[in-house]
């Protein structure tokens, strides 16, 4: 899949006047001022748990590998669900009021992120049923290390590209 280069300025461009923007924007979910802060907080938890799992595996603390892996899977899954339900839904509807290029960028970005999520989720699903032990710990660590760049890539691209787009889509006016 091709890599997508997008800046906030590129996305936040003039609305395509040929579309009925008012009709489309009626379907736009409410802007949630706390969404991005919550998602960024999740990223910290996700990474903390990921590195905790890796550390327990390297220390051959198999009981805590399993417990931390369950926590990591739960936080990661919840985070992905919130992003799908709130962030991506909002951005796709917003993009539909913009140019074809911006619609394609959001769609492609969403697909890329979904592919990364599937890779991580597949790993998590398989790991839950195969307890880590002395016989497979090295393979488990190797697989974790393969997941790490996917996870870091997803988080950094969301925080650098998508979150600013979301934040800038709703201009807040200070009335005090």
Reconstruct the topology from this structure.
Blueprint: H1 8-11, H2 21-26, H3 35-58, H4 62-95, H5 100-129, H6 137-168
Helix pairs in contact: 3-4, 3-6, 4-5, 5-6
Summarize, please.
Helices cover 74% and strands 0% of the residues. It is mainly α and 176 residues long. The protein has one domain: Four Helix Bundle (Hemerythrin (Met), subunit A) (Up-down Bundle), CATH 1.20.120.520.
How many strands appear in the DSSP assignment?
0
Strand/helix succession: HHHHHH
Here the CATH topology equals Four Helix Bundle (Hemerythrin (Met), subunit A)
**Structural class, please?**
mainly alpha
Shape: elongated
Tally of alpha and pi helices:
6
CATH superfamily: nmb1532 protein domain like
By CATH, the architecture is named: Up-down Bundle
Can you tell me about this structure?
There is one protein chain. Helix 3 (35-58) runs antiparallel to helix 4 (62-95), helix 3 packs antiparallel against helix 6 and helix 5 packs antiparallel against helix 6 (137-168). The protein starts with 7 loop residues before the first helix and ends in an 8-residue tail after the last helix. Helices cover 74% and strands 0% of the residues. It has helices at 8-11, 21-26, 35-58, 62-95, 100-129, 137-168. The chain is elongated. The chain is mostly helical and 176 residues long. The protein has a single domain (32-168), classed as Up-down Bundle (Four Helix Bundle (Hemerythrin (Met), subunit A)), CATH 1.20.120.
């Amino acid at each position: 899949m091709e890599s997508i280069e997008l800046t906030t300025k590129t996305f936040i461009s003039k609305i395509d006047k040929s579309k009925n923007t008012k009709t489309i924007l009626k379907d736009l979910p409410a802007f949630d001022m706390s969404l991005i802060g919550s998602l960024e907080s999740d990223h910290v938890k996700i990474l903390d748990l990921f590195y905790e799992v890796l550390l327990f595996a390297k220390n051959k603390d198999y009981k805590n590998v399993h417990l931390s892996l369950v926590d990591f899977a739960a936080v990661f899954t919840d985070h992905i669900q919130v992003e799908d339900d709130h962030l991506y839904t909002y951005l796709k509807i917003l993009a539909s009021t913009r140019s074809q290029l911006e619609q394609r960028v959001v769609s492609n970005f969403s697909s890329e992120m979904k592919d990364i999520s599937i890779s991580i989720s597949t790993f998590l699903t398989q790991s839950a049923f195969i307890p880590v032990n002395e016989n497979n710990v090295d393979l488990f660590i190797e697989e974790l290390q393969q997941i790490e760049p996917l996870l870091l890539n997803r988080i950094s691209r969301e925080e650098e590209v998508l979150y600013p787009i979301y934040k800038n889509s709703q201009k807040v006016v200070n009335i005090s």
